Amino acid sequence: MFVAPLLLLLFGPFAPSSGAQLPNEGQAKDPPIATNGQPFPWDRMRLPKTVSPIHYDLIIHPNLTTFDFTGVARIELDVHEDTSVIILHAKQMQISNVLLLAPEGVRPLQVLENPRFHQLALLSDSVLTKGRKYEVQLGFAANLSDSYHGFYKSSYRTSTGEVRFMASTQFEATFARGAFPCFDEPAFKANFTIRITREPRHIAISNMRLLEDNFDTTVKMSTYLVAYIVSDFLSVSKTTQHGVKISIYAVPEKIDQTAFALDAAVKLLDFYDDYFDIPYPLPKQVVFKCLMLFAADLAAIPDFQSGAMENWGLTTYRETGLLFDADRSSASDKLGITKVIAHELAHQWFGNLVTMEWWNDLWLNEGFAKFMEYISLDITYPELHVDDFFLGKCFEAMEVDSLSSSHPVSTPVENPMQIQEMFDDVSYDKGACILNMLRDFLTPEAFEIGIIQYLKRYSYQNTVNSHLWESLTNICDSDDLDEGRMKHKEFCSKRHVPSGASKWYSDDELDVRAIMDTWTLQEGFPLVTVEVRGREVRLSQERYLKTDDPSLTEGFLWQIPLTYMTSASSTIHRFLLKTKTDVLYLPEEVDWVKFNVDMSGYYMVHYADNGWNSIIRLLQHNHTALTSNDRASLIHTVFQLVSIGKVRLDTALELSLYLSRETEIMAVTQGFGELVPLYKLMEKRDMPALENQMKGYIVDLFRGLIDRQEWSDSGSVSERVLRSYLLLFACVRNYTPCVTKATQLFNQWKASDGKISLPVDITMAVFVIGARTPEGWNFLFEKYRNSMQMSVKSRMKTAMTVTPLQDKLKWMMEQSLRGDVMKTQDLPDVVVSVSRNPHGFKLAWDFLRANWHTLIKKFDLGSSTISYMVTGVTNQYSTREMLNEVRSFFGSLTEETGSEMRCIQQTYETIEDNIRWMDTNLPLLRAWLDKHRHKGPHEDL
């Protein structure tokens, strides 16, 4: 879920993970036939609403020797229309002993199965009457899954080499149906009582507190939030100020790496309790001597596909997302762990308490949780400077949103593959960025009041987009808020006072829905062109799109909350651009104007006529007149405008010259983010002279900043992350002072058999240099294999993928697929890292093709993991030959093997864009580098 900035630098920006939308499969093309040959009585993907579940009573018995499980589901039903058929979900399981428990007595039900839609039909010989309640009982059995979905098996190796097994769940989005028969859609909320049969050597944990091996009944919730684990985990616990007991579970030998996460979870849950003005909404109730205990569990799972999962009351994580070693984990690790915990705990309100009606509005869950990571950490962990990293999320979203194969934030989906594909940068990152834009526009106070109103109004219910916009409109006229929230009463009493920072004082009634529908119901984002003529500022908007077909940009219009400042005034001015073109007037003529202040808005700005030259002069002579976010957004924008022919490459490169004086992490890393991909494209072609010239220019540009870095762990989190970034880049690029120092440190570390302690933040640079030789690589691998420190293993694994030794690269991918020594959950990172290595990109492409069918079975069609591999391996190709090779492979697939995935269309578009860029800009690049005499050769890896 969280890609470290180090990987971005080392391998270039990753194409966003997403996927493709199939034609509407909501209805079967032919009348469906059940597996026994009878007609199946329902022909749609979505379940009928004739009945709904009220309560599930589940008994589950997993066997960790035979790796299968059996169970009984007893489901209480509410009947909304007379019917003799109950349609529900079950996937790849044996169903037996299906009974209807009616007031008139118990009788068997006939069972039909439609595997295509994962549906069961339970047929009654008498009518179930509207308004009455019934129960059905189903026996079920299945194998524990070999993937990372459903009820699946996981394993870990102890320090003595013993392999131990456990079973865990991952039900989002449509995988609960593989663990027990259920109504597996988010709107079918119900209560769950879960009983797990296990061996004495194991423990069981689930959403609720344990009552003598029976878990208490849950609150009303969606199936995808149900969770249970059978393992030999140990736990540590603390209680929050609000009285919630928080426990962290991990394998026994890693329980000592949980202290940081435990403290973070306590601090963040207290923050959310206060911020949302709603107590933690899952009482894991244990009544004991009249006490009622509230609890939240977090578990580190040895095998886990995504970053983490927000199961209500039992959030689950990759081990790297939860385990922290104070002596060996880096500043990036601390940032990543706090962000992922903040994200999953925010979901306890956004997603769990209030759930989207259907997966088309997934962003209401994920966009909010991503957004709240930054709101919560800014207050609870100010020392992490989380604001330094938010912009990167918006840039990542824009990368996918600039393709014609993007999709609206809220978009229709029907089948499981389409649903999986919603878990992408548009739902998460664009969702967060448009919420940030709205918060800035409405003011943080008004926004906070509105979302509290939303959560209180729709607690334990399902929502659609419009419910949120209604809650953010007329916030001061609502009685949904407690009288006790004084700051909100104060805000509302003052809201008519004019303020340049707010639109709430305006005589115009704000139509939040009209504004935000333009951001959620159409794909893409606007490019605002600014022309300054004296005091007159002419504005126009169009869709920013990387395409050579101008017709694809027509018909788009946004309501854009513009912000701007000028050379004459640091006041932030606001203007809502509702039309294709408009004009605003400045009080006086100015030297420069900067729109989208701090890039609080999800749009790009093009400064026409002489506008970019004014910006370049400002950056060259007084770059601190603008904030680091403003500088980062200008760097990002000017290079993106090169891609669509609005700005010449030499103009963008002239702007980049100021970076030799830049010190702030956001602007520095964005400079790398725009310049590094230029030579990464060349690495896939035979053009070493220009490639090395470009590498030389980047090294020279940042040489001063690199030389000032200490090889220690001193400084703030942002300074430490930047140090890791810069030294890693310098070593990979063979900058002599860096290579010399890293070689010396690696040799010392190797001579001590890995016992001396290296400064954490410089270890990636040291490991990368050490992994260049067979002896160094083998030593690093031995340390990797025996380490119990997850963050150290992660850095070692990445460093090993940067080696020039092709046999090692190939071996790593094969081993990761097998999963014995290197876990298969890490395979996607390994494959993409190898593809970024100039010695490995062909190996990664060959591996992806050769193992395609195994990969889609393990990681699931449409998943962000498959998309990440597809785009990560291919998005630096820039030749017709490679485009044809990519088209040939993906074109040979069937719908069942992924031919309809959106990520394949994105791959074609990205390579075509790369080809256009190279054809247009290589001569300009060559001429500009010659003119500036930045000489190579800088030998590559």
From TrEMBL:
Record keyword Transmembrane helix present: yes
GO BP: any one term: peptide catabolic process
Matches recorded under InterPro entries: Aminopeptidase_N-like_N, Aminopeptidase_N-like_N_sf, ERAP1-like_C_dom, M1_APN-typ, Peptidase_M1, Peptidase_M1_aminopeptidases, Peptidase_M1_dom, Peptidase_M4/M1_CTD_sf
Peptidase M1 membrane alanine aminopeptidase domain location: 260-477
Gene Ontology CC: one annotated term: endoplasmic reticulum membrane
EC supergroup of this enzyme: hydrolase
Subunit structure: Monomer. May also exist as a heterodimer; with ERAP2. Interacts with RBMX.
Listed name of the protein: Aminopeptidase
Assigned protein family: Belongs to the peptidase M1 family.
SUPFAM superfamilies to which the protein is assigned, alphabetical: Leukotriene A4 hydrolase N-terminal domain, Metalloproteases ('zincins'), catalytic domain
Main location per the UniProt record: endoplasmic reticulum
Compartmental location: Endoplasmic reticulum membrane
Keyword Transmembrane: yes
Source organism: Seriola dumerili (Greater amberjack)
Membrane association type: Single-pass type II membrane protein
A matching Pfam family: Peptidase_M1
Entry annotation: catalytic residues: E344 (proton acceptor)
Signal peptide start and end residues: 1-19
